[in-house]
Design brief:
This protein has 295 residues and is an alpha/beta fold. It has three domains: 67 residues, Orthogonal Bundle (Arc Repressor Mutant, subunit A); 98 residues, Periplasmic binding protein-like II (D-Maltodextrin-Binding Protein, domain 2, 3-Layer(aba) Sandwich); 92 residues, Periplasmic binding protein-like II (D-Maltodextrin-Binding Protein, domain 2), CATH 3.40.190.10. The strands form three sheets. Strands 4-3-5-12-6 form a five-stranded mixed sheet, with helices on one face. Strands 9-8-10-7-11 form a five-stranded mixed sheet, with helices on both faces. A hairpin with a 2-residue loop joins strand 1 and strand 2. Helix 1 crosses helix 2. The termini are far apart.
């Protein structure tokens, strides 16, 4: 074991956990070919096949399972040591890895990131736009700015406010179809990849399948589809209210409100560069017109 490359082992553990090369590549922010190369390198060093290549993904072999058992807890110990070492850094400089969703990045964050970097030029930001939670515990990111009603218990942070969702149409569509009964409108809805969202559950309950004109796999894409007049849709007010081609046709549905959190790991919250970034973002986002301050 002492002759093995830890990076190769990280790639092995990711494939074992995700069950696919593409899943590991996404988690580790590496290319498909890099994951394959690392896996092949490890198998060559060990002289053993660690996975069976199946049509539906990668299934771990007996040898792979034994290796995973030997590595149990090692990755968390290394990540914990990294967090503690970073926590000793007293400089207001260096890299801060940030993760957020495409909606918040597009609707709020990018101008604030630009302002922060003008104020703190010695701090370099790395932004990962990802609609699934990456692990702050494993230091895949230092700070997460995300809409969520259930932040992880392993993280610390503050709630900025909440996002609202309301019903919108394009001005041209509404001018032509405002008198039409709601049961006869064409709808833009989230597709099955967004089934975890409250908007998707709302659409499943209220929109008949035959009235769905288009399903979209991003909330930003839904805004674009409604803007083009394809149909009406439940959109994030953060994205839709400032669009001069759209009109809100119903007030926000309170059951679709989603909290916005700024989160980090407890070991990192007092690191100067991370504290500067999180405090700046909290102050700016609390006054953002697209984010409603908490009740």
């Amino acid at each position: 074991m002492h002759d093995l490359d830890w990076d190769d082992l990280r790639f092995f553990l990711s494939v074992a956990a995700r069950g696919s090369i593409s899943g590991a590549a996404q988690e580790l922010r590496a290319s498909h070919s890099t994951v394959l190369r690392r896996l092949a390198s490890l198998e060559k060093k060990l002289g053993a096949r660690l996975f069976k290549r199946l049509p539906g993904g990668y299934a771990i072999t007996g040898a792979g399972e034994r290796l995973r058992e030997r590595l149990a807890g090692v990755s968390e110990q290394i990540a914990g040591a990294q967090r503690q070492l970073v926590g000793l850094d007293t400089r207001a400089s260096g890299i801060v890895r940030v993760t957020s969703t495409d909606t918040l990045t597009h609707g709020a964050l990018m101008p604030l990131i630009a302002e922060f970097q003008r104020k703190q030029p010695e701090i370099t930001l790395q932004l990962a736009v990802n609609n699934t939670f990456v692990s702050l515990t494993k230091r895949e990111a230092d700070v997460a700015i995300r809409p969520t009603s259930r932040p992880s218990e392993n993280l610390v942070g503050r709630k900025v406010g909440y996002l609202q969702t309301a019903l919108y149409a394009s001005k041209s569509y509404w001018k032509a179809h405002a008198r039409r009964p709601f049961a006869e409108h064409r709808w833009i809805v989230p597709d099955e990849t967004l089934s975890h969202l409250a908007q998707a559950r709302w659409a499943a309950r209220h929109v008949p399948a035959e009235r769905v004109a288009l399903s979209v796999d991003t909330l930003i894409g839904m805004v674009s589809a409604v803007r083009e007049g394809i149909g009406i849709g439940m959109l994030l007010s953060l994205l839709a209210d400032d669009d001069d081609q759209l009109v809100r046709i119903r007030e926000p549905e309170s059951q679709l409100d989603t909290d916005v959190w700024i989160l980090t790991h407890a070991d990192l919250k007092q690191v100067p560069r991370i504290r500067l970034f999180t405090e700046f973002m909290y102050a700016r986002l609390r006054t953002h017109p697209g984010i409603v301050r908490s009740r």
